[in-house]
Amino acid sequence: MNKPLLDDTLLSGANAAFVEAVYDEYLHNPNSVALAWREYFDQLAKQPEAAAARQTQAPVGGATAVAPTAKPSGRETQTVLPEAVAADTDDRKQVAVLQLINMHRYLGLNQAKLDPLGLKQQADVPELNPAHYGFTEADMDKVFNTGSLVGPEHAQLREILQILRETYCGSVGAEYMYISSVEQKRWIQARLEGQRSNPDYSADYKRHILERLNAAEGLEKYLHTRYVGQKRFSGEGNESLIPLLDNLIHRAGKAGVQQIIMGMAHRARLNVLVNTLGKMPADLFREFEGKQPEALPSGDVKYHQGFSSAIKTADGIVRLALAFNPSHLEIVNPVVEGSVRARQHLLNDKLGDRVLPVLIHGDAAFAGQGVVMETLNLSQTRGYGTGGTVHIIINNQIGFTTSDPRDSRSTLYCTDVAKMIEAPIFHVNGDDPEAVVMVAELALDFRMRFHKDVVIDMVCFRRLGHNEQDEPMVTQPRMYQIINQHPGTRKRYADKLIGEGVIKPEDADQLVQAYREAMDEGVNPNKTVCYDYKSPYTINWEPFVQPCKWNKKVKTGVALQTLKQLALRLTDIPEGFKLHSRVEKIIADRRSMGNGELPLDWGMAENLAYASLLKEGYPVRLSGQDSGRGTFFHRHAVLHDQVAADQNERIYVPLRHLYPEQPDFVVIDSMLSEEAVLGFEYGYATTQPTELVIWEAQFGDFANGAQVVIDQFIASGEAKWGRLCGLVMMLPHGYEGQGPEHSSARLERYLQLCADYNIQVCVPSTPAQMFHALRRQMIRPIRKPLIIMSPKSMLRHKESVSSLDELAHGHFYPVISETENLDSNRVKRIIACSGKIYYELMAYRKEQQISDMAIIRLEQLYPFPHEEFQAEIDRFGNAKEVLWCQEEPGNQGAWHRIQHYLLRHMKPDQVLGYALRASSASPAVGYTARHKFTQNELIVAAFREKI
């Protein structure tokens, strides 16, 4: 141990950059550096209180830099260091300087001045103190090599320390050293250290920042006095959000961005609507007074409303859109991302340079709601990436009314979840508007350069309670004693500018008075808003807003010759592409189906539906956890070469090779998420009405993980916000003896949501029905969500097949009549059903040779096909009984919703009965024997003598 670990010449100032690079790599992963370096840095870590804070800030995906024998913080320890390390030489101190620089990059934010209220006691971080490395006052004037620190190549320790503290311990606290990319880290260092996190804005721009702060505060005070006690979820305390967004929009315009799509919850939403997007105050006042200009079935509260506008920047017009959002806070995140992806697709914006997503969060929600993590996880995947999102957190340090931050999360910062995707995080004091604006510039430039998510954590406060009827002093007395003494961000900044001579005291007063006069007139003083601008990229929804004509037949059949040509293309596999033997058989069978030699199965009919839509100019987007192959081994839209030429697996997607310059066919095996993925696809479908957008659940039961999206967006978005959406949900459904979580897609839940002709619920029982349902969704000028209870065992049922002729000359039948040649006068009972159970009822009737009971299939449960069902009742005019048969328990399935429709069409002398499983708390049994028994029991019950 007396032998030096490393040659001292390697530790000299001349090698500072090299040593720093090795040390930086060591901090990420100690095992990645040479043994001698690892031992050296380990020894440096064996100092009293070494790296305690660093341990809490371990880089994402890397090991902590604390040596295995290091003692916890607060314990005194005597460590006998090797002579070479203990020697107090300039070379050793040079290395210590590099450590000091790196520790400020890692841990400087722990001593940054981020809290406008000064509530939080700053942690003592030994690694930020020169004394921790053995430096004394005598060393402060010594000159050292600064390594990669931006600035002079050599500087006194005193100057180095000043640069570090101004950069990392002022109004901005940066977290980025966990990023794997050296280029990205160096870029951030250059930006922060180059200006020491202190922007140098012109006097004119400082006055502009003040004007925006004045608007933010002015609106809140005006509403507070005019509409006393009404909920508005005030933005007081976080006024710097408005100049932040103003800078972001104008800088984005300079970067070539044409559209910004925003999502946010209710906090400060009204302020953003008026002062950022340009909503007319007079319109907002009418909403406060209970006047709704839109003729919507239900409408929504003012702080959930969306808005779109255009902003004039020095470099062109930027379109803004704020997405509608329910009270479920972060659920809007994937919806915004889906809308952005659709817009990027329309503009052929593959990198995300022209359409920018901006998400505004609350601190407690960002840390607490799982959809945040799910959406972050989507951000860098192939099927869902949008080129990076700018995240802005309104961190009022309280979350909601009675929240204590100690109970809001288990992480040190509310932003820690963003580290999972190595997004840089910039914490900033909301009372320093210039620092806030500087961070906005930094965040946007990073996103545009590297196309990654970036997070701004604006630490501020909330002047009032969770809403304006709440009294926060009840639960947060200490915090609100301080807040009540706070003069406000606008006042503090105005005083600063007066002190700098940028404005006169009367200038600030004139701004306040001018904004109030504008509010009295109900006009918006923001001169950059273009109220009469029409974007050339605006989507035309006009063809789909006409009153629904549900019963109007549309031609969904495709010419027989065209079907055969498409079938040929679907089964034309490139030479040398080796299919799996089972898939090879499927493709061979499909070739025979296309020639009319075999009946069509579900997989072939579905592929032909997509192929025919593509031929007619409709793009197709299909996503789900097994969508490429199909959960039940039926779709095979993506084929895999079994003999890959290299490590990169070779795939072939026939639907992308139908003919030159065809529309896009996108099929995605999504991540294991329902909520974020379904929200994304909803957002995509609300933006692109001419593209068939489908989300497929792995099993229909799993959609309950996305219930918020279904309830708050898909089912009610049109009634609340007038948002049309043609999204298709495929939910595999059917009782196959696979237990409670693999049987029921919870049909009853969707039927319960049906009203105002808001959605369609269909249960197709043949491949041709699926073919026509998918085509009808695009060809008919109606854009309503379509819920398909799709099959499982029917996919390969020998009776559940169709012919090419049915695809060519048929259409979607809401009701399928009795198919056997029964004597209608002798039929005494009409059995109505949906889905797989039809085939079991048919099998039993044939086996028992029953000829006086007719079986009809309801293929569309909502909107209910009244005319078609009435025709069946009239066809069997002598029937005295109508019976509903379903696989699901009586408290589930369609029974409770369907019975009043059945009764409406029945004759006075007819009796309504049912055959179903007994009501149950669980959707299905988990024992195969029990399943078979109850299944047989309900089939027999459907044909019993008396109902």
Between the first and last Cα atoms, what is the distance in angstroms? Answer: 94 Å
Mean pLDDT: 89
* CATH homologous superfamily (4th level) name of the largest domain: Thiamin diphosphate (ThDP)-binding fold, Pyr/PP domains
- The CATH architecture of the largest domain comes to 3-Layer(aba) Sandwich
Helix content: 25-40%
Strand count, sense and barrel status of the largest sheet are: 8 strands, mixed
Total number of helical segments?
32
Describe this structure in words.
The protein is an alpha/beta fold. The protein folds into 4 domains: 188 residues, no CATH class; 318 residues, 3-Layer(aba) Sandwich (Rossmann fold); 250 residues, Rossmann fold; 126 residues, Multifunctional 2-oxoglutarate metabolism enzyme, C-terminal domain (Rossmann fold), CATH 3.40.50. The protein is built from 32 helices and 24 strands. An 8-stranded mixed β-sheet has the order 3-9-10-8-7-4-6-5. β9, α16 and β10 form a beta-alpha-beta unit. α1 crosses α5, α20 crosses α22 and α23 packs parallel to α24. The N terminus is likely disordered.
